[in-house]
Every structure is written in C-alpha cells, then in structure tokens.
Design goal:
This protein has 268 residues and is of the alpha/beta class. It has one domain: Rossmann fold (3-Layer(aba) Sandwich). Helix content is 28%, strand content 18%. α1 crosses α5 and α3 runs parallel beside α4. The longest helix has 16 residues. It is globular. The termini are far apart.
C-alpha cells in the first residue's frame, strides 16, 4: 500500500500533481531546486526539500524514505545528448537502492521515438532514437528491488503552455501538415494518480491525447483563441513525423481523456 510519495521535481507538472495527490490522502514530499519555492511547497501541505543534482547530491533528510518515488526531472537542452543527466540519474538510482524504495514512476518522453512517418507504439523500440531518456529508462529498470513504471509523455500543454504562442507571427513554416502529439497537464496528473491506484504493470506506456490534428490547425486555433498573430505555413518538402499511439495505457486503465483533442485544450 502506498501512503507516502516523494516527487523529485515539483515544477510545472510536479507541483499540481502533488496538490492532486494530497486530495487523495497521500503524504507528499516534494523537491525543488529553488530555495524560494520551499515555503510555497510547505504552505500547500507538501513536505519541502531542496535538492540540486550537480550532477549528484545525496538527498537531505528522509526524502527517499517513501513508499513511492516519482522522478520528474527532464534533461535540459544542454544535457539531452550529454552525460550530465545520466550521471544525475545514476545518483538517484543509488539513492533508490540505498533506501530500499519498492515503487518508482519515471516520467519519460515520447521524444525517444524517431520520426519515421508512421504510427508508433510502445512495442516499436527498434524505432526509438538513441536518446538519453532510453538509457535512463534502462538504468531504472535494472534496479532489482523495485517495480518501475515508465510513462512516456507527449508534449505537455495546457494552462500557460500554448503551443502556437511559441511561433506567433512566424512566416512560411513548413511543418504545418504534420500531426501533433500533445497531452494536457490535467490528463497527465489524472493518469499518474490512476497508475498509483491501479498499478497497471507492463510499462512503458505512451501518455498522449488520442487525437492528432495538424500542427497548423492547432496553431491557428491558438492564435484565434488568444488573439495573437497566427504563423503562416507553406507546403514544402515532406517533414518527418510520427503519430504516437496511446491505446495501451488508456485501455489498461479504462481511462477517458478530459482533453482528447489538442484543438480543444483551451476551449472555454
């Protein structure tokens, strides 16, 4: 039975996840790299810890004394193809072993799959890039004492993350025809809670909204909804893409998405 959960990384996803899990009666420990945020965590009922992995730092106090560890530390753009993130995760793996943690949820990414111009599922490991997150997944799966559930999340959107805003006013984009792979933050939070409760096993799982509209349609809809200048698109040379299939998880959990269509992520 899970009573105490440690969340390594209480940022844009981890903080609302912690708040949601508190409502379900769990004791939540949360880490942040910012000393300024420690008080915010405490005020919201989260036991706060300041943890900076540079690249390895033993956690202070009893952060790893928990029934479940959720690892939510994505590699930065500076370390994605380097060794720093791997060294950080090796340090975390050592802490998992040292403290005898039995259950781990690792937030990975669908970016591990190469753009192969077709649909990909969890079984398509041969289509995966040589991505740092794949190495981290394997590192964690090789910890004998614990069960590791890997959630490969698509592009995290919702709230202040509006995909079209990153390209407002841009001209002649050639990626308008490719399908998007997005997931709303509220769905990720709800899915993680269900995974904790139901322990579906047999990971990894792709966590992605079931509909994949064209990128240009999403951006133009965002521009209309938020009243910014829409980007323009051209039909250029074919742009590599992938369509990430998330049926395995939704069927295993019988999960019904709050936001199945990225076109409607911001509908009021």
């Amino acid at each position: 039975m899970v009573n105490t959960i440690s969340i390594l990384g209480c940022g844009w996803l981890g903080f609302p996840l912690a708040l949601h899990l508190l409502t379900k009666g769990y004791t939540i420990k949360g880490s942040t790299t910012s000393t300024d945020k420690l008080q915010v965590l405490k005020e919201n009922g989260i036991i706060p810890y300041h943890i900076v992995l540079n690249p390895v730092e033993a956690a202070p106090g009893d952060f790893y004394h928990s029934d479940l560890l959720i690892i939510n530390i994505p590699p930065s753009s500076a370390t994605k193809s380097g060794t720093t993130h791997m060294e950080q995760m090796k340090g975390v793996a050592s802490e998992i072993r040292r403290h005898g943690i039995k259950k781990v949820i690792f937030i990975s990414s669908t970016s591990v799959y190469a753009n192969v111009n077709t649909e990909v599922t969890e079984a398509d490991v041969y289509l995966a890039d040589d991505h740092i997150l794949l190495h981290v997944e394997n590192l964690l799966k090789n910890i004998d004492q614990c069960t590791v559930t890997i959630l490969r999340c698509a592009g995290l959107m919702g709230y202040n993350r509006v995909p079209g805003k990153y390209f407002k006013g841009k001209k002649a984009l050639d990626t308008g025809e490719i399908p998007v792979n997005y997931i709303h933050r509220d769905d990720v939070v709800a899915i993680i809670a269900r995974v904790i409760e139901e322990e579906p096993g047999d990971s990894p799982f792709n966590v992605v909204a079931p509909l994949h509209p064209k990128r240009k349609d999403v951006y133009i809809r965002n521009a209309k909804d938020f009243e910014f200048e829409a980007p323009t698109f051209v039909i250029g040379k074919p742009t590599p893409f992938k369509i990430v299939n998330g049926d395995k998880l939704s069927q295993r959990l019988d999960y019904h998405f709050k936001y199945p269509n990225p076109m409607e992520f911001y509908a009021t």
